[in-house]
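Sequence only, no structure available. Ideas?
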Amino acid sequence: MEYVLSILLLQFCQNKVSSLEHNRKVMLGYLLCILSLLMCLWLEVKYQQSRMKVVTAYLLAVLGGNSSPSSNDIKNILAAGDI
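Reply:
I predicted one. Tokens follow.
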């Protein structure tokens, strides 16, 4: 009888451990999804900031009298501002 109970207890513990292991894997998967989503959002913000800098440089060139600024004009404006 003790042998059977010890086997049942061992199986119960193994199931709990594998259940915990499964839960850890699921939680790790959720964590990785959240981290990758945050990374995508961060990259999107960085991209938007970069785009806004170019748009601002373009508008500064137009306000400065250059009706059709080239890419070199934009690069020069950004370089002058150490951006």
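The mean pLDDT is 75.
Hope that gets you unstuck.
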